[in-house]
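Q: Got a minute? One more chain.
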Amino acid sequence: MNPRLFDPAMEDVAALAALHATSFPDAWSADAIRELFAGPGVFAFSIPDGFILARAVGDEAEILTLAVTPKTRRQGLGRSLIQAAARHARGLGASSLFLEVAANNSAAQALYRGQGFISGGRRKAYYGPQDADVLKVMLPLPNSEDFA
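A: Always. Here it is, folded:
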């Protein structure tokens, strides 16, 4: 499955919000996602069962969220979305990519570490009572054949 660049001016942002709701108990609304798209450097890649929202500013990019429907997890969709976002961010001038991920989300931690992300610190109580690990990778992704 090849992720495609999402065009918020032509496509339904509510579809991204619906996908987000399948992955997070405190899902983002379509309005919240629309507001993010209004910011500088924000882009998304989507597939029928997931999407990644990121932003690139200067030489750094950040994954804002990654959502894959529970029934289609562990099939490489998240990896494909991360790789598409990393390629795009690099094309926009970013040399690194980072994100915050819940410290107790072992599945997400494994996905990102499998793509070469390493620990860059911890944000205490980032998700309310939960801590978040800050993970970072230099671009291109070291474990991606797309960058070989």
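A: The beta strands are 4-5, 42-47, 50-57, 60-68, 96-102, 118-127, 130-138.
Q: Perfect, thanks.
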